[in-house]
Amino acid sequence: MTSYKDNKVITIGTVNELTGLSERQIRYYEERGLIYPKRTKRGTRRYSFSDIEILMKIADKREDGVQTNEIRKDMINKKKDTDIRDEMLRGQLNAHFKKLR
């Protein structure tokens, strides 16, 4: 089941109002591969609350002078760390339940 935070239903104008980022900044972060909005059949971007949280973190880092390529690398590394942790946990659970059989 998908969390409400991941439903891509928010327009770029609303994201602009919620984050204070200009539409151009939001599109730029998409171009840089930092966020991935869904596109409607007409090409309208739709964002989720999770996207808004990511954009706020990006904005904070940019205010601190962090470049977008550094932010992207950090995001990729965090995803890898999460994937590795998930894989290890699955392995531990599988090993545990195999012992119980």
Automatic annotation (TrEMBL):
| A Pfam family this chain is assigned to | MerR_1
Coiled coil segments of this chain: none
Q: State which residue ranges cross the membrane.
A: none
| Entry keyword annotation includes Isomerase | no
Q: What molecular function terms (GO) are annotated for this protein? A: DNA binding; DNA-binding transcription factor activity
- Sorted alphabetically, which Gene3D superfamilies does this protein's record hold? 1.10.1660.10
- Give yes or no: UniProt keyword ATP-binding: no
Looking up InterPro entries in the UniProt record yields:
DNA-bd_dom_put_sf (IPR009061), MerR-type_HTH_dom (IPR000551), MerR_fam (IPR047057)
* Residue ranges occupied by any HTH merR-type domain in the UniProt entry: 9-77
Listed A to Z, the keywords are: DNA-binding, Repressor, Transcription, Transcription regulation
The record's section on SMART domains has: HTH_MERR
Entry protein name: DNA-binding transcriptional regulator, MerR family
